[in-house]
Specification:
This protein is mainly alpha-helical. It contains 6 helices and no strands. InterPro entries: DUF2062.
Length: 138
């Protein structure tokens, strides 16, 4: 759970991305608990919750609001005010969009994490392993 293994790392990334898209507090705690019980990589799950941070949260909540309004078929006026006002004024479209965005993002992040894990292994770790291999004596 703490040392990266290919599939567990990718599953941890998917869990982290899922929780990153949910606009609720304690995202890291939720991701860590689910990763623990799912026996996947906990550091990856926690790290990927940082996709939503003070710089990116407004973008993701606005996107969730738009997706939620599209799915629910409601008229989406342009939100005014701050982020918390939007969530307070229209929680159902935001949470609907968040659920859809979380599921889609998690599904996409799993194969991307597998590819990234393999790429890092080939690009950076394979040359180190070759140089540290014991020399055969002739």
């Amino acid at each position: 759970m703490w040392q990266p293994q290919r599939e567990r790392f990718a599953a941890g990334c998917a869990i982290g991305v899922f929780f990153a898209m949910i606009p609720l507090p304690f995202q890291m705690l939720g991701a860590a608990v689910i990763a623990y019980f799912g026996r996947v990589n906990i550091p990856a799950a926690i790290a990927l919750t940082w996709l939503t941070n003070p710089l990116t949260a407004a973008f993701f909540v606005y996107l969730e609001y738009k997706i939620g309004n599209f799915i629910l078929g409601t008229a989406a006026g342009e939100p005014t005010g701050n982020l918390f006002e939007l969530i307070k004024r229209a929680p159902f479209p935001v949470l609907t969009g968040a659920g859809v965005l979380a599921i889609v993002s998690a599904i996409i992040s799993y194969p991307v994490a597998l590819w990234g894990y393999d790429w890092v292994g080939r690009r950076f770790l394979a040359p180190v392993r070759k140089n540290n291999a014991p020399k055969s004596q002739a």
